[in-house]
Write a structure and sequence with these properties.
Elements (H helix, E strand, L loop, with lengths): L2 H14 L14 E7 L2 E7 L6 E7 L12 H15 L11 H13 L4 H5 L3
């Protein structure tokens, strides 16, 4: 995992993560990288308000779907859908609602893709 991936992940966490115990927003100071190897990273988030610790294990994968025959316009729509579902600032990102899942599924089917096409390298 390169530095830019880690930086993007930490920035996303600090914009979107609230303590599950007291709903306090976190900052960079709350985040400790416990372990990182390959594309996996383990993070400890300590709330400075209630002192609860949360462990987050994430994986960052480079995905190249440009060779799937998707037009630039549809690729942009897919990107926007994924960003909306996964990192919508101010929205509780712990939960993805049914409408978002159905919408993503419909978009993938339109472009003759499935979730595996987005996650697995060829």
């Amino acid at each position: 995992m390169n530095f830019q991936s880690i930086k993007w992940m930490i920035n996303s966490l600090t914009k979107n993560y609230k303590c599950p115990e007291c709903s306090e927003w976190i900052t960079d100071a709350n985040v400790d990288i416990i372990w990182a190897a390959g594309s996996t990273i383990n993070i400890d988030i300590e709330c400075f308000n209630c002192w609860k610790h949360s462990m987050v294990k994430t994986e960052v994968l480079a995905v190249n779907i440009s060779d799937k025959g998707i037009s630039a316009e549809n690729l942009e729509k897919l990107k926007n859908t994924l960003l909306k579902v996964s990192w919508n600032p101010g929205v509780n990102t712990n939960k993805i609602n049914d409408e978002e899942i159905v919408g993503l599924n419909k978009d993938l089917k339109k472009w003759k893709l499935n979730v595996a096409d987005l996650l697995w390298k060829n």
